[in-house]
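@channel anyone free to eyeball this complex?
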Amino acid sequence: MLQDVNLPFGLDEYRSRLAKTRVAMAERGIEVLFVSDPSNMCWLTGYDAWSFYTFQGVIVSLEDDPIYWGRNMDTQAARRTTWLDEDHIVPYPDNYVQNPEHHPMQHLAEVLNGRGMSNSRIGVEADNYYYSAKADQSLRTSLGRDDLIDVTGLVNWQRAVKSAHEIQYMRIAGSILELVYEHIGNVIRPGMRKNDLVAEILHASITGTPEHGGDYAAIVPLLPTGADATASHLTWNDAPMEKGAGTFLELAGCFRRYHAPLCRSFFLGTPPPEVVNAEAALVEALSAGIDVARSGNTAADVANALASVLAKYGIDRGGARCGYPIGLSYPPDWGERTISLRPEDTTVLEPGMTFHFMPGLWMQDWGLEITETILITESGPAECLLDVDRSVMVFD
Amino acid sequence: MLQDVNLPFGLDEYRSRLAKTRVAMAERGIEVLFVSDPSNMCWLTGYDAWSFYTFQGVIVSLEDDPIYWGRNMDTQAARRTTWLDEDHIVPYPDNYVQNPEHHPMQHLAEVLNGRGMSNSRIGVEADNYYYSAKADQSLRTSLGRDDLIDVTGLVNWQRAVKSAHEIQYMRIAGSILELVYEHIGNVIRPGMRKNDLVAEILHASITGTPEHGGDYAAIVPLLPTGADATASHLTWNDAPMEKGAGTFLELAGCFRRYHAPLCRSFFLGTPPPEVVNAEAALVEALSAGIDVARSGNTAADVANALASVLAKYGIDRGGARCGYPIGLSYPPDWGERTISLRPEDTTVLEPGMTFHFMPGLWMQDWGLEITETILITESGPAECLLDVDRSVMVFD
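replying in thread with the prediction:
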């Protein structure tokens, strides 16, 4: 580790993360874990760069320090952002990049061989964006083994309960997003081009606070209007926003890769009765969900509390989950891909868990989002990390 | 297709893309192609949403229209952004999302079965971010077949030569980035926090021009300073930019998902002799590369022309490729992942191909990037799509 690496957490915290991961590895009988999820890589080592578009990973064994393995030009990012020493940073040559003749996993197999790891019980994150079918096949062929073990989510599950320092980063991310919403309220006007609103949102999100600059969120702003708001994941266009339609804002504040998402909605003109009804339903249902989001209750309890209030208002979300854990993340998803707030998920909630409680409504002709980032506390209902009025903002 | 879908291209263009793709499928003996690369999905159907963090795809057969298959809540994005009719939009239920009990690929197998496609010769994009090892295994198991054919890049290769309309979008993206660089020149000052510069960059990128609003680039701004600039893919922090260090700016303009990247560098204070030498080398080497980037020459010719000028100045890029095709893209990469400008790649250049000619220098103590987006023309050297002074910007 270089003298001037500015790690977001102390070495103790990385060591304790590694220890937790090793316990989980041992429980699954894994001796060597190949971590390709960039969020898991960062959580374990500090590695932080937009290099995940080429193959890379962190090799975790039961005793030695983790090894960063990646494209030659990206090893410099490992030197600049991780606590690893030179012996634990391993490059592959650039002609392995996007070249059908040489797959990077062939090189990884050589590294595992060279370090005496190729006969170990090896775990991989087989259902991750950054571990393709071809990568898996290439690694198996190169190792001459067909018994790699899928441990998708093993590290993600260790991230579910946040440390005090992580929660502090999420609070900062939340304070940034509070300023963004304040700014939105000041600049929206009918006739404004949608992209011009996004420019304001991104400017405020990255400016952050005087003390803390903003980082990029793992998902860009989603803010469809009117009929487009029936679709959950549209981004934006450059059409003027006209009166007579609603728009939802799906945004997150981000600080040092830690996210605090929160959605609000606005209407240009007078909202129709079905939107007013849905707003009342969502606000009441959110409170009901937050009230049961307590240590010892389950993910399902939260989903059921929400659904029963919405049902009272005649609203059915069609089986869509209503939340997921959040924290450290890289594109394309800011969720942690472990727990889901849905009736089938009986995971028990623990203090320090953080969720985006996200009951989006995407109806036949319109959509509405009012959501919260919540923290499970020692006792009592969950704490909302942000303080933003839940009402639909109305602009005339 | 709904009446008010605002497709970026006419139906004729989509039909001609589909026809090209089918010729390539037939050449490979593929009857059914499962397309999971979001850029390929968009290129074929217009589909445009940030929904690629859950499994989705486009099923292309040799005769019937393509089928969008995705999470229930995202089928509405297919209705809002594609030319497909209702019979060609197929949802899977939300409890398949990030749930170890049900993989979406089990549902895809049912769809293929139901449409009489499960015994066809099926091609998949096995080396794509959005087609994980687990997805592949789940699809094989569910179909009871182990003979899926890897045709990674099949659609990407059809995208290499751009249509006039695509080039027009890239010119618009370029005109947006020209304004961004003009704005950067106006706002940089020593002591400015790095994130505040990024806020300005993103604001200008998304504001775009009075006629054309900006879209999000597939890669966020990369702009490391000083020793950090030895690493190619660092993003930013909130430290003030001090005098005595250089920073490179890796940025793209984006319009309706079409990219025009261009990198420039700046120095606060007086650049040291090695940076001045490298600047002269890069400017001369870029010209040499652009001059041989002609129809009929090869990708290797461009790489070799660049390298021989750099060698004259004593600069060795350590085998790193110096460019890649660009156009339509989604995160995490704005390249097309087909051709690489490197000595081993003998692909013949054709009119209408577009590249990010990208000879980044990441040296021992500093880094420098001066790059161009180029268009291969009918005759003569490549055309630069943007007009931005290549000099290192110096601020005192």
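from a first look: The first strand of chain A starts at residue 32 and ends at 35.
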